[in-house]
Amino acid sequence: MGNLESEDRNLSLLGAATVSADRELSRSQIRIFVLIGCLVLLDGFDVQAMGFVAPALVRAWKLEPAVLGPVFSAGHDLAEVAEAGLPAMRSLLGTCTELMTLMQQVPQPVVARVHGLATAAGCQLVASADLAVASEDAGFATPGGKGGWFCHTPMVAVARNVGRKRAVELAMSGDVIDARTALDWGLVNQVVPAGQLDSAVQDLLDRVTRGSAESKGIGKQALYAQIDLDQPKAYAYAVEVMAATSQLPDAHEWTQAFLEKRKPRWRRGR
């Protein structure tokens, strides 16, 4: 299953936790037991029984299915797919969808570190992350369009990042786009030389984990909730959330710290 690594084992102040596939998995293929493992890590588990850190105390999640090698993630394992009947495929795709959805539901920022080729469900993984940083040698594709199994579920996430015309091109052609094109199309946030990838990811993590963790968590979830609503409904929802969160202790602490010209003291945060 996935691994969880943390920069800091102090449970009162954890940094970014890393979700990665075991090293022996070929090209970081997305297999059912990996999906279930990642769901367990992101959705919570018994700290005492499992010996891991509690997700609620992690400031951010960093996704790197393959730390080394030419491929970020090649998507589903076709050997597993070839043996699966309809019920098994529904289960596999449903579990994958649950993971992609959960990445946007957890309160912490989820950042994808993309160092190689991200195809099919691997490209979906990048599109589903809150943020993504890619190295200059990264590539992105939904190859089903030039094969025999169209990338239906990956395109749900990808199309919401790149827009309709570009989504159709990716889906129909199956072509690989390079990292600079992915940046231009809105699939990733930054593109950096390979040697600067880790530092760029860390810099982004540092910037998106500043402030109150409670406020940021509610803010992320509210952002996803309103972003596909029409404007009047989005404003109505946002007004209620913003009014309610103005009464939180960290909101009061922020305004008081500003008035007193001092650094805020968050309940959770930095």
Q: Could you characterize what this model shows?
A:
The protein has 270 residues and is α/β, with parallel strands linked by helices. The protein has two domains: 206 residues, 2-enoyl-CoA Hydratase, Chain A, domain 1; 48 residues, Lyase 2-enoyl-coa Hydratase, Chain  A, domain 2 (Orthogonal Bundle). It contains twelve helices and ten strands. The strands form two sheets. It has a six-stranded mixed beta sheet, sandwiched between helices. It has a four-stranded mixed beta sheet with strand order 4-6-8-9. Helix 4 runs parallel beside helix 5, helix 6 packs antiparallel against helix 7 and helix 10 runs antiparallel to helix 11. The longest helix is centred in the middle third of the chain and has 20 residues. The protein is globular, with a radius of gyration of 19 Å. The relative contact order is 0.11. The N terminus is likely disordered.
Q: From N to C, what is the helix and strand string? A: EEHHEEHHEEHEEHHEHEHHHH
Distance between the termini: 31 Å
CATH-assigned homologous superfamily of the largest domain:
2-enoyl-CoA Hydratase, Chain A, domain 1
Query: What is the approximate shape?
Result: globular
Number of strands: 10
Q: Main beta sheet: strand number and arrangement?
A: 6 strands, mixed
Oligomer category = single chain
CATH fold type of the largest domain: 2-enoyl-CoA Hydratase, Chain A, domain 1
Strand content: 5-15%
